[in-house]
Amino acid sequence: MELPCIRYLIRLGRVHPPALWLALCAIPIAGIASEEKLPLWEAGAGIGVASIQDYRGSDQRHTYTVPIPYIVYRGDFLQVDRNKIRGLLFSTEKMSADISVFGTVPVESGENRARSGMPDLDSTLEIGPQLSFFLKQAEPSDYSLTLRLPIRTVQRFDSGFNGNAGTLFTPTLDLEWEPERAWKARVSAIALFADRKYHDYFYGVKPQYATAGRPAYSASGGYSGAQLFTTLSRRFSNIWVGAFLQADSLHGSTVEDSPLLKRKYSLSAGFGVSWVFAESKERVAPSK
């Protein structure tokens, strides 16, 4: 489960509802691989900067500054780090089941040319079950390969929940490199599929919002494009640093002809630093 980092975003000096910094929270934690016992829990805080599109397919972007917590818990049943929460459902040597969580930032249509005159896009919270199949374990090598199959329902919210915005299925192939006491890297190849309701929320144009340059458009469900998500992170004593780079493509998607889709290809990037300021006295064996 990718941590649902529910915080406030600071954008151009104004406070916004949560959701962006979920991207920064997807950066794997840079824990030190060791046979030595580790703290049961660790806590810290830091700050990150990310430049992302207003929405997938937009030709406009914003740069956000966001607080990022550092949380690790190494319990027998519940295990929490920057990459996932494990053990919520079940786990074996070959597969696991947990909860996948992600989200999107709000978009003020008055600040986006393509959506001018249309309703704002709310923040979304995506949550649902995820099956993970361990195709190659990290031990005895430094590499692991995992196939993840998350299905998430999408909820809109502002000050409260505003309704359902559809369903996403995002099969993901994760390649992770975790050498001992060195930089950790992760590359995720993601295919996105969404239902009609999700596509229509982001890319549909109702007749009352149609203009000469923006015809009415009703989306359909299906293929929603692909992403390549890369992260790099490392722990230096009580300082953690991490960065991500995401390449996004909507080429061949079912919403390719939407008048709101202005750019088929894009890059997003971010960087974060956290100070780990507290840890438990109790020590446990590192998780495998």
Offer a few descriptive terms.
288 residues, mainly beta, Outer membrane phospholipase (ompla), Chain C, 14-stranded antiparallel beta sheet, two-stranded antiparallel sheet, 2 helices
* Unreliable residue runs: 1-23, 26-34
Helical proportion, percent range: under 10%
Structural class: mainly beta
Radius of gyration over all CA atoms, rounded: 20 Å
Task: Explain what this protein looks like in three dimensions.
Helix content is 4%, strand content 52%. The protein has one domain (9-284): Outer membrane phospholipase (ompla), Chain C, CATH 2.40.230. It is built from two helices and 18 strands. The chain is mainly β. The longest helix is centred in the last third of the chain and has 8 residues, at 196-203.
Short account of what is shown:
By secondary structure, the chain is mainly beta. Helices cover 4% and strands 52% of the residues. It has a single domain, classed as Outer membrane phospholipase (ompla), Chain C (Beta Barrel), CATH 2.40.230.
Note the topology.
Elements: E1 9-11, E2 14-16, H1 22-25, E3 38-39, E4 41-53, E5 61-74, E6 79-80, E7 85-86, E8 90-91, E9 95-104, E10 123-136, E11 143-157, E12 161-169, E13 172-177, E14 184-194, H2 196-203, E15 222-236, E16 239-249, E17 265-279, E18 283-284
Antiparallel strand pairs: 1-2, 3-18, 4-5, 4-17, 5-6, 6-7, 8-9, 9-10, 10-11, 11-12, 11-13, 12-14, 13-14, 14-15, 15-16, 16-17
